[in-house]
Amino acid sequence: MGSEAVLEGHYVQYAHYNFESTSVELGRAQWPNYDDQHYLRSCKWSPDGTCLLTVVRGAGMHVMELPSDLYNGDSIMNSRQIQALMPAVSVPESGLIYDYCWYPGMNSSTAATCCWAASGHEGPIHLWDAFSGELRCSYRGFNSVDELEAAISVTFSADGQNIFCGYKKNVKIFSTGRPGREYVEYPTNHPASCLVASLAQPGVVAIGTWKNSIELVSQSDGSFRHLCKLTGHKGGVTTMAFSHCGMRLYSGGRKDKEIICWDLRVPGRPLFCVPRDANTNQKITIDISSCGKWLVSGGTDGKVQVWNVEENSTPTTHYQLPLHNDCVNGVSLHPYRPVLATASGQHHTLDPLHHTRNTQSYENALCMWWVGNSHDDPDYITSIIKAASNV
């Protein structure tokens, strides 16, 4: 918890979370309920923590900046005014976005690193500029009859040198610095619905499939080696996260009310399972804090579940944060500040008799929440600032 990291050129400590206290809403962006339903599809903090990326169905991709007053300080006022979040960059991509991922070496002080990759319906993988929203380049995957094929999932390698893209029958690996249609294939038995690369063990990639299984592979020098296969989910795997030590893998599936923790040193069976509410086919993401202590997950009940996974067995420290009145499909913990981002919304079916949706105002929102220490006394904050200035 006392380790340091760099944020905007300054050394800062990892976040000190306080999930026991009331979460303070910091900022919110809301999308209206048009006929094509502008619900969100998860959210992801940039690796340097300066901005937040989200995808809105039918309304493109949007980048929100972290409010400037949140870069410093160990506490905030409970009465802090909620800030309206406005996109710093928007990409009006009207088609359905399947998956997206920040470049792992992204740093706002180096413009060349500020980008993300996204895969959409009936299109190639695009690399987007995070400053201008312009398209930098594309990576095109083709099937056995030389037809352009859309990737179901996408992620970067730990060093950012390669882009792993999941397709119906294989995983294609593109060199990030070489756009076009040159790639290496790794065959899979089922569609690769979810991909994640290990930061602690470069070259190790987990491939989740719609057939409820996970395959771990090791990739180096263009060759692949099968490591192990993990089975246990009741639904297709849609979200995964490696622990920061690389020894554990957390995974969740669609219509599957369990998050499974796998000990990769003994991969034969799950280490433990924790429950969450997930009763739709929608992707509901999980995330791990930078310190490696906290696992968070969204849920269709509008609650964010939080577990302390530093405990050796099944976590006993568990918090439920009722933050939304609709499905929380995306959660992302800030890399260095006690700020939680959430994305809400889901597909709501038509009334079969009137072919309309009910008049309820659905919550299609991107929110930032303070999950650290907070106070009601303004003199407390003043004393902290004075004490810091006297050091």
UniProtKB/TrEMBL annotation:
InterPro entries: SWT21/TCAB1_mRNA_Telomere (IPR051150), WD40/YVTN_repeat-like_dom_sf (IPR015943), WD40_repeat_CS (IPR019775), WD40_repeat_dom_sf (IPR036322), WD40_rpt (IPR001680). WD repeats lie at residues 276-317. Keywords: Repeat, WD repeat. PROSITE patterns: WD_REPEATS_1 (PS00678), WD_REPEATS_2 (PS50082). The keyword Repeat applies. Belongs to the TCAB1 family. This is WD repeat-containing protein 79.
